[in-house]
Write a structure and sequence with these properties.
Blueprint: E1 7-12, H1 16-27, E2 32-38, H2 41-51, E3 55-59, H3 67-77, E4 82-86, H4 90-102, E5 106-109, H5 117-132, E6 166-171, H6 175-182, E7 193-198, H7 205-214, E8 219-222, E9 233-236, E10 242-245, E11 251-254, H8 266-277, E12 281-285, H9 294-302, E13 306-310, H10 320-326, E14 332-334, H11 336-355
Parallel strand pairs: 1-2, 1-3, 3-4, 4-5, 6-7, 6-12, 7-9, 8-9, 12-13, 13-14
Antiparallel strand pairs: 10-11
Helix pairs in contact: 1-5, 2-3, 3-4, 4-6, 8-9, 9-10
Length: 356
């Protein structure tokens, strides 16, 4: 797509009225052009390759082929940026998490019949622009859901983690899919706790935790105030709350001011981990837009900890990792498939150092 070319959009929704109204408002934006519409997933899959849109905006609940089925098929035959329209219900959140792990770039609340469409489009516009800039080669999921990994469920003992080490992982756009690649590769025997901050609104982090817990050997749960740090457990910051540490054994949630415009913020968790664990912190910054994690990475390195940034070659959006790299706050810059191996190496290195 050239710099002077419009961003070509394709809309998928079983409501003719919704498509017409949304198309009307999107076409009013100077460099947006709605080049096609479909009433269900089957029609979308048939039409999209021929029209070559830059971004697809797709509803989930549709006849014949729903949005998740269409997304999975598109990621297999014609990967391109897709933004899902999600209902703000428990079922809608579960479907949204599945869509994001299948390769959708982002999601937006599905407009109600009484919604202010102009406001909806205003909120949707930056997501569309971000999606249009994504490298398509990073989107293919080969049509496979992470649920197919077949990791057995293991009931772990309630064992307090050794106080020497904690791993903080931060991500944003493209994060759910990256986390579904990274976390299943972490062994449950590793003597460390994991704190994950994924930029996501309230109501969506719990389904994300539940989904990851189903495909991993380590335990994954949405963090609650006062949760202990346990070996082999991943705590995910709940939407709307910063995740920090009360001390070296328990976490704390708060609704203090947003950092980098977000809450939860990666920086908040990294600052707190550095304060309580000193050099025994490993920070990992994955795909995402913006600079959250940059200052936290600096804080970790200042107290002697280590930082890994995801390499541009595997980032859906090379924003957060880029900010860390450009600030010279990364010890290592490596592609996503190698990060789990490096985490294991770093934790084992620290454990050996601690025993000396």
């Amino acid at each position: 797509m050239g710099s002077s070319s419009p961003i070509r959009l394709f809309l998928v929704d079983d409501s003719t009225f919704a498509r017409v109204v949304l198309a009307k408002h999107l076409n009013r934006i100077a460099d947006f052009e709605v080049v096609g519409q479909a009433k269900d997933g089957k029609e979308a899959v048939e039409c999209i390759p021929g029209l070559e849109p830059d971004v697809v905006i797709m509803d989930v609940v549709m006849p014949r082929m729903n949005g998740l089925e269409a997304l999975e098929e598109l990621m297999r035959i014609y990967p391109l940026p897709v933004i899902m329209l999600s209902s703000l219900t428990k079922e809608g959140a579960d479907e949204t998490i599945e869509a994001l792990t299948l390769g959708a770039i982002d999601f937006h609340a599905k407009p109600s019949a009484k919604a202010n469409i102009a406001q909806v489009v205003e909120d949707l516009e930056p997501k569309i622009r971000q999606a249009a800039a994504v490298e398509r080669g990073l989107l293919s999921s080969a049509g496979k859901s992470p649920e197919g990994t077949g990791v057995p469920q293991v009931q772990l003992p309630e064992k307090l983690v050794r106080p020497e080490m904690v791993v903080v992982i931060g991500s944003s756009t493209g994060g759910p899919k990256a986390l579904s690649t990274l976390i299943p590769l972490l062994p449950r025997e590793l003597e460390t706790a994991y704190l994950v901050v994924q930029h996501m609104p309230e109501g969506f982090t719990k389904p994300l935790a539940e989904r990851l817990d189903q495909i991993t050997a380590v335990r994954v749960k949405e963090a609650e105030h006062g949760d202990p740090l346990l070996a082999g457990q991943v705590l995910i910051a709940p939407g709307g709350f910063h995740l920090e540490l009360q001390n070296r054994h328990r976490v704390a949630l708060n609704t203090r001011e947003k950092i980098c415009g977000v809450r939860p913020a990666v920086d908040a968790t990294m600052f707190s981990a550095a304060d309580h664990f000193g050099g025994a912190v490993l920070g990992v910054v994955l795909t995402g837009m913006g600079k959250d994690g940059r200052d936290g990475a600096r804080a970790i390195r200042k107290v002697g900890g280590r930082v890994i940034a995801e390499d541009q070659s595997t980032c859906v959006v090379w924003g957060m990792p880029r900010s860390v790299v450009e600030a010279r706050a990364a010890d290592l810059v490596i592609p996503l498939p190698r990060i789990s191996e490096q985490i294991i190496s770093e934790v084992n290195r620290w454990s050996g150092k601690a025993v000396d």
